[in-house]
Amino acid sequence: MTMEDRNRIWTTGHTNLGYFSENLQQQALPLQRQQTPGNLSLLATPIVANGSANGVGNANGHGQSAALESAQSKHVPFQGPAPILVGVQSRFRRHYYHKVVLGGLTALVIALLIAIIVISVTLKKSSSICRSKECIRTAASLIYAMDEQTDPCEDFYKFTCGRWANEHPRPDSVTSNDWFRERQAHIMRLVRDFLRSNITNAEPEAVGKAKTMYRGCMDTNLLDKRDLEPLVGYLVRFGLPILPSALNLTLSSNSKFSAEATNDSSFNWLDSLVTIKRHLSMDLIIGFDVFPDPFNRTLNRIALGTPETDSAFPFNKDDSHKMLRKIHRKTIFMQNSDEEDDNEDNRESEEEEAARKTSTGMTAYLHYVRKVIEKYLLYVDPYVNQEDATLGITELVKQGVRVARKVHALKEEAENSTKPSKNPADDIVYISLQDLQNQTDKNIAPKTLPIWAKYMELILKGTKHASNIQLTRNLTIITSPADILYLQRVVEYLEETPTSHIESYLWLSTLEELVLHTTSSMRLLHSEYMKLAIGTEGSTPRSLHCANGVNSLFGMAVSYVLADDRFVEEKLPRVQRMLSDIRRSFDRLVKSTTWMDAATKRKTIQKSAEMKSFIGYPTWLQNATALNAFYEGAETNATTHLENLINFVHWQMMEKLNEMDKPEPIGWATSPSNVNAFHTFQSNAITVPIAILQYPFYDLGLEALNYGSIGTILGHELTHGFDDSGRRFDRFGNMVEWWSNKTIDEYINRTECFVDQYSSYHLADIDEYIDGELTLGENIADNGGMREAFYAYRLYVKEMGRERAKLPGLEHYSHEQLFFISFGNLWCETYTPAASRYALSDSHCPGQMRLRGVLSNSEEFARTFKCASGSAMNPSQPKCRIW
């Protein structure tokens, strides 16, 4: 287990990882559907919605009028002879007249009775159609997404999502689109409008800080005016030269930075590496983090090991940027640095060779980096010799890429050389800094510095722990065999590598991270790079880009706009009731298992009972004092955008280091503005933000639909506590073996079924297969979550009564069928081949495979849709099931 692994193993699991598309209109759409007998107004004419709290509407509009109009337009067949007879009073004529009148009256009564019956039946059937605005909106959305010509037993994804992409086109600025992304875009528009509004004294100070950061991000004229000066200032602050030595250039006397360049001190890679970590939270060469001890969450531990690869800045964390970095890593590391021959001076340059041998993404990257450095050089010295600069840039990139490749290779070698244990707990190593130093010195002593004690002194500088030398030198850290092997080898590599090469790597990495937050011309270069590398045609509007970034940093302050007392009074109790139903459903499924022993069942149910839930938003969010205290020490300025970002990240890092001697509080895993849900293993808690408690995940009109959507998400998060990682943590959030050995063996046997099943799923558009091992935890959560939600809905029906209202236009489906249709609609998506390849490295399967995997394992689905054994959605082989 490496430090990267622990994000999934030790921290959180979530439903999914969206933005930037127009919202579906939230009104009844002009559905072109055939009328159903007895429903004379069914979506063919406008419907006046007068919905009730339970989602059953009253037909007070056109539905009743149409029925009455239809009945009143019927002609009673009364054509009996009635001539006027004058003067003759015969008994025959009187008798005949009486018969005619009696017959006419009888016919009239019969006609009236028929009309009454027709009206009664029509009104009864009409009243069984849910006409609330929620039902009408949901019905319209489902109908326009579905392809009802497809047999649901053959391809349920196409049945529920076959036309979704037509109604939800992918924005040019992204490579994929789904419901999560669309609704996040909706939230971001709300956030943007809020951040645009004036700063007032009535709002908490923290909200004003967020709005100030947004203004700094939006002032592109000022960013262009300041040019690259803030960037140069930070390079110097981080101990990096204005001109890396690999460029072999000297600033002219006309450069405004010539004095600073003259004062450049000798480069110290350890000082620079730690300073970058403290200010950008970016791992370069050495991975560092602080998190709860997996065996005792009341203690925090410092971890050292392989470097994380995520970006430091939240502005660089959207899916497109993540995909770009992943493609970049795959291409830049294709060539093995061990095969390089530095003695061949005349050979093809490494840059050109990489561009020739690797993908379009690598070619695009090298072009982008060259252009960025060229613009940088022209800024720091307009009189730079262009020919010399071209040669220098080639050498700088060559050195930086070489170090990057070697670090990556050492990381892979360490992971491949140390086979992970079946139990991740066995891979956790506690070691003192001195012992780590001894391990490191095996091959390089006495040349090396006491690197680890020095590293810790530098990183704790300025914190309340800085003066505690005893803590620093005798500190026990947490790591793993793979991490120790990596640290040994990387220090050996650093010892024998020219300092200029390490400098080039740190300089390029920092430049790439910061340059996006400078001028318009630099951002344009990056947009062109993304277009070539991953195929995006447009860029995200600046206003949404800034809103998203501010939300990532000031998430709680930004969520102030989402806090709503009505949510607490009306929606929160209903969601809590649903979660309670799902928890009871899970407990019943556990009790019914035959592979768990009684003691393990009891402990599992106890963990479920004690699982904490954070739903909507924290109660303190509307308390100005509490919200201000949450961001105390974080400062922003509308005229210093780059400084705002770096200062905030630095503040977060210092807060983490200062508080590392205190237990990590159990609380919200994310801000309320995040359209997602999370499970935190070490807190035994789930977080369900208010942002996901909206259409199309909730408020769908019928409880069958709600349980099929948000209910399955709640079940998914609950089940994460018992997936292949979550089951290792007890009810207190500590990693202990709390299941019996026999139960563990039975569990592992069942997980192998899931691995084999999902590994057989083929993505035809890219000719690749799903990684069943990588996606195991999410697949267990998907399968368990759906089943728990299904039986939770049955509990709801048993206790609250059957839902009688039908969904307009979809009356021919039962409520349990609507449950599955709602579940299927949840995973509708569209994506480019590049996004599909990127998804292969994600712990979540693509939506189509998530749906196929869950439903083909579901006997409940097969019964509900009457799918024959052997059909695609009800395969004849044994079904995979844990819960």
Beta-strand proportion: 5-15%
Report helical residue fraction.
40-55%
Large-scale geometry: globular
**Count the strands?**
12
Please state how the strands of the largest beta sheet are arranged side by side. 1-8-9-7
| Residue windows where pLDDT falls under 50 for at least 5 positions | 17-94, 120-126, 331-358
* The top level CATH class name of the largest domain: Mainly Alpha
Enumerate how many helices there are, as a single number: 35
Computed CA radius of gyration, to the nearest angstrom: 33 Å
Task: Tell me the name of the CATH homologous superfamily of the largest domain.
Answer: Neutral endopeptidase , domain2
CATH architecture of the largest domain: Orthogonal Bundle
- The structure class reads mainly alpha
What is the total domain count?
3
Major sheet characteristics: 4 strands, mixed
Could you please describe the fold and organization of this structure?
By secondary structure, this protein is mainly α. It folds into three domains: 62-128; 154-167 and 565-618 and 672-864, Collagenase (Catalytic Domain), CATH 3.40.390; 208-552, Neutral endopeptidase , domain2 (Neutral endopeptidase, domain 2), CATH 1.10.1380.10. The chain is built from 35 helices and twelve strands. It is globular and about 120 Å long.
